[in-house]
Amino acid sequence: MGQEEFVFLLIGLKWTVLLSAVGFVCGGVAGLGVALARASGIPLLERLTAGYIAVFQGTPLLMQLFVVYYGLALVGLMLDAWVAVAIGLTLHASAYLGEIWRGSIEAVPRGQTEAAKALSLRYLSRMKDVILPQALRISLPATIGFLVQLIKGTSLASIVGFTELTRAGNIISNQIFQPLTVFGVVGILYFLMCCPLTILGARLERRFAASAR
User: Fold this and answer.
1) pLDDT number for residue 213
2) Contact predicate 34/48, CB 8 Å
3) Residue 41: helix, strand or coil by DSSP?
């Protein structure tokens, strides 16, 4: 594998990073709304968001990307592959992050909520100033773990013809007939992205566990 092939892999790596960032950030914004709805105490909102989470956690990401790209095309909504994958990853991430953060919100000691109510804080103020800062701290290890899974999940974008890192490796492999070398490099690039995050998540989990004793 020569320099040109490696540069092509780096271009694919760039799109993998961008897809991961878009899916995580946009999914995080939507996921916060899902988490707040799940913890709102309003039965209708809780049931709707529980169904939303069940759909996206109960179906493969590959199928979700397929439905967004090809399914919407069947009803006349043609999306660029980049847009379709970004939407699919955002929906996927919002369901998982929403459930992670819902669990973290409920893990905050109930006394914190009662104290905030005693101070006459409204729902939004209670969440913004009291509950969410603590919930964010609790959720960090699981959130980072999900980000690692999301990075690896971008490899499924190839189903709609989008050229990210894995598809770039497949294209090069078909050209130079060195699959072990090419995908060895691809694997190393994924490892360099995911391993530091995995280590960070493990360290945060140990730190929070020690502080909770």
Assistant:
1) 56
2) no
3) coil
